[in-house]
Amino acid sequence: MFRTAVRAFALTVTLALAAPAVAADTVPPIVYKERTLANGLKVYSSVDKATPNVTVQVWYGVGSKDDPVGRSGFAHLFEHMMFKATRDMPSETIDRMTEDVGGFNNASTYDDFTNYYEVVPANHLERLLWVEAQRLGALVVDEAVFKSERDVVKEELRQSVLSQPYGRLMYLYLPQASYTTHPYKRPGIGSIEELDAATIDDVRAFHAAYYRPDNAALIVIGNFDEAELNAWVDKYFGPLKRPAAPIKRVSAVEPPRAQAGVFEGYGPNVPLPAVAMTWHAPAASSPDAAALTVLDAILSSGKSSRLYDSLVYEQQVAADVFSDASLPEQPGMVMVGAILAGGKTIPEGEKALLAQVAKLRDAPPTAAELAEAKNELVTGKLRARETIDGRAFALGYALRTAGDAALANRELAELQAVTAADVQRVARKYLTDNGRMTIRYRAETDRPAGQADSTPKPPVVASVKYAGEIVTLAPEGQRAAPPPLGTPVSPVLPQPSEKTLANGLRVIVAKSSDLPLVTADLTFRTGAWADPDGLAGAMGMTAGMLTEGTKTRGAQEIASQTEALGASLEAGGGQESSSVTLNVMPEKLPAALAIMADVARNPAFKDEELERQRSQALDGLSVAYQQPGQLAGFAASQVVFSGTAFGHVATGTPASLTRLTTADLAKLHAASFRPDNAILVLTGDITPAQGFALAEKAFGDWTAPAGPPPARVGVTPKAPPRAVAIDLPGTGQAAVTVTKAAISRAAPDYYPAIVANSVLGGGYSARLNQEIRIKRGLSYGANSRLSAQRTTGLFRAAAQTKNESAPEVLDLIIAELKRLADTPAGPEELKARKSVLVGGFGRELATTGGLADILGNLALYDLPLAEIGAYTGKVEAVTPAEVQAFAKTNLDPAAASVIVAGDAKAFLEGLKTRKPNLEVVPASDIDFDRVDLKKAK
User: Fold this and answer.
1) What is the mean pLDDT of the chain?
2) pLDDT score of 456
């Protein structure tokens, strides 16, 4: 759906949001203006003087349902084309004007619309309006770009669908089984066959038919002058002509389902069976939409939802559950489903799901359930509006699905008005026995002998003949220049305050917003490095069990009490630390903090709860072990860090998780979960005085045990480089990883390191993605990451590609590592990649959760909090020579390990040629507890 899975990029540094100060427990409306140009273009604008940024979005009324017959995936393919050349802009110019100045751009294709969006510093607004007008009115569609982007989309299909155990179920079988007539039945991402059948004439005709001003809506939110915006919109969009021909619209009507149906689907590498049920439902504009949204929340929102509580917690018949009532522009569907737990059968899953559907029809939800669902929905809307682009998305989505942008504000009142009787009424109206379609999904090996694949073959349709205008890139001297930049808007950084309670708890508070939302993050300085020998995942399980019951609250009580507040409460662990994180509206913060303190201080570690969590974790690993990217990631722990405290999988293995006891968890908790080993960070709509008082109330009487906290260990990796191939037969892609140990966060060359990584693989325009995706279409996205921790770090460069291309992708990664060390980065490239970092840092600061993460990590790694103010200057001070020196010293590919996971028969010969000492491990024999990665014979 999205242009790329690895676009990381970001806003410039920002402090606050557009919303004015409001009373707690309310979601401020999005205050906007709208107008329509003579050519039909709709314009929506909202001024926010608290941010130094602006978002520009264009929402087109064309989506997957509008794909031509025999060309499914076409709207999505065209989304990719829109990032290339125009009459006055060569290919990749859009990235130069967004990512390279510290902003970001992306796009997505839904059933009903395609949206393009950017966030940039506010002084770039006029330039971005010019860009959007260019690609609406003067897009270049040529053969070379068309073929390259088609290859990229194929890799996206392989990555998102064919290499994922449940990709076929979610992307292909659900729509195929649920509709017989309406084009919603076709997969939005398309098929290899239909993508291959497309021609350049098809693409040009598609653009002419749908990319026109009267089918577009421009949304601008951020820091700008309204009169200037209107003048620029008139200047750049006003001259665009409205075509005389009417816009093509889908007129197909899905007939009612007369009787229940069953669809049998199969896929390779499916470790656990799954079952889903769908029913026809109304359009997003229906008066029943709000009640169906609440029904959906009651079914599957949070751990106290009916599906989780019944199927996952009580009966333990499911490893995961889901439901959805996201209604589209035309009549759509509602669904429920489950991925079954190990050893459970599809009939058991069906019975359990049907019981919950019947329960909704037979009786209205309780008042508590109704209030909880509404609180969760309202707080979810608030979280989505923390950013200017989130608010713009809310307007665009309401416009393109329900036909009215004002619904973005009105829907909150409509949700609050839903009654228990409404929920029961829509359950009875839509979730009927005769209207049900059941989709059963199993491993390909379970397909009965002789049963044919039920996936329909794509229709063979001749390409159209396009006779309209063909736009070409103007000669360099004849291109219109982009508008000049305006005056920059200076960001305002949050100012953290801190104190240490008498019990040793370090408390950090930063007021960062007037939007009524607060994040509280409690971090403990002990992570997976403290796992006892043979018990990988012990600390992670200890942290995860915190929310599964205390001495006074059961697991279900914790979930229901938290979710009744509209709060999210999560606990987990990583290599360096463990944490409990809370997000809630300010007025409910005291009650939510009391629950947070209880789970951190008083976990019960009951045997039955451990068995539930263990079963879920084992089911999760059975799925992860069928995904090439996950396998490569797990292997890196042993390959890079063997012999150290990081030399195991932090989340555990099937063998290690099976050995865990509640006594193990209680012992780890007693040693490490103590106030003098913890950091509490509070961010958002909260003052330091309020934060310190709440911390004292919730945690002040927590007594630290006698003796010091556990001493944190230093990690010094010494493992030699290795080359490993993990063979996963039948998977749709190979995951290629080059990895090695890296530096610590406190290292003097930390800033040269992150700039070097940004040049190499830190974004869409970085070198790896340029070479692997943009130039060759070999992957949906290639990237690198440098994770600097307390005493060491991890570097990874990675891409997923079709199996047979794995050796070529490996060559490209290694070549770029060598180039980084051999040749200094040029000044323009370095400036752009620094902007990506500064923008990314600002984007994190813009949300309560991101700011809490930054402050918590600074404290965890014993760095001064003032680093948030020094970050930009330190990044900008890095020189080309420092980047090159870091690459030479720390990113030598000869010292790195190579891990490739995929269907080895397609790439083994090529890999062995490059890596004669290649170790080959069948995925069926994998054992991440062992250095050699193989089960003992």
Assistant:
1) 94
2) 79
Which helix H or strand E contains 665, and what residues bound it? helix 662-672
Q: Are 773 and 782 in contact (CB under 8 A)?
A: yes
Smallest Cα–Cα separation from 215: which of 478, 400, 413, 91?
400
Helix (H, G, I), strand (E, B) or coil at 377: helix
Report pLDDT for 19. Answer: 29
d(CA 363, CA 427): 10
pLDDT tens digits along 668-701: 999 999 999 999 999 999 999 999 999 999 999 9
Spatial CB neighbours of 653, under 8 Å, sequence gap ≥ 6:
536, 537, 621, 927, 928, 929
pLDDT at 454: 74
d(CA 496, CA 859): 12
pLDDT at 775: 94
List, in sequence order, the alpha helices (H) in 823-932.
827-845, 848-860, 867-876, 880-890, 908-914
- E strands in 376-505: 437-443, 497-500
Beta partners for 106?
A: 117
How remote is the C-alpha of 310 from its chain's centroid?
27
List Cβ neighbours of 205 (8 Å cut-off, separation of 6 or more). Answer: 464, 466, 468
The predicted pLDDT at position 490 comes to: 87
The residue count for the chain: 937
Q: Are 141 and 81 in contact (CB under 8 A)?
A: yes
Location of structure tokens 């305002």: 492
Which among 280, 245, 250 has a CA at the least distance from the CA of 112? 250
Beta-strand ranges (E) seen in 40-161 are 42-47, 53-60, 104-109, 114-121
Residues 6+ apart with CB under 8 A from 362: none
- Number of helices and strands in the chain (H, E): 32, 23
Residues of the chain with pLDDT under 50: 1-24
Sign of CA dihedral 742, 634, 10, 21: negative
Continuous H helices in 65-142: 74-81, 93-97, 125-137
Straight-line distance from the first to the last Cα atom of the chain, in angstroms, rounded to the nearest whole number: 44
| Whole-number Å distance between alpha carbons of 924 and 727 | 8
- Would you state the pLDDT for residue 451? 87
Task: Answer for the pair 196, 460: CB distance below 8 angstroms, yes or no.
Answer: no
Q: Which two tokens stand for residue 911?
A: 């890999």
Region for 464 from its dihedrals, namely left if φ exceeds 0, alpha if ψ lies in -120 to 50, beta otherwise: beta
CA separation for the pair 833, 823 (Å, rounded): 16
SS3 318: strand
**pLDDT tens digits, residue range 299-333?**
999 999 999 999 999 999 999 999 999 999 999 99
* R_g (Cα) of the chain, nearest Å: 27
β-bridge partners, 277: 336, 438
The predicted pLDDT at position 25 comes to 55
How is residue 239 written in tokens? 């001259």
Tokens 């689907």 sit on residue? 265
DSSP structural state of residue 287: T
- Rounded to whole angstroms, how far apart are CA atoms 908 and 924? 17
Strand order from edge to edge, sheet including 897-902: 782-788, 793-801, 734-742, 897-902, 723-727, 919-922
List the strands of the sheet with 333-340, edge to edge.
261-267, 437-443, 274-280, 333-340, 318-324
Q: Following CA atoms 405, 406, 412, 418 in sequence, which dihedral angle do they give, to the nearest 10 degrees?
A: -100
Q: How far apart are CA 477 and CA 877, in angstroms?
A: 35
Number of Cβ within 10 Å of residue 687's Cβ equals 13
CA distance 189 to 734: 20
Residue 426, sorted as left (phi over 0), alpha (psi -120 to 50) or beta, turns out to be: alpha
Q: How far apart are CA 923 and CA 635, in angstroms?
A: 11
Cβ contact 727:921 at 8 Å: yes
Cα dihedral 827, 829, 830, 831 sign: positive
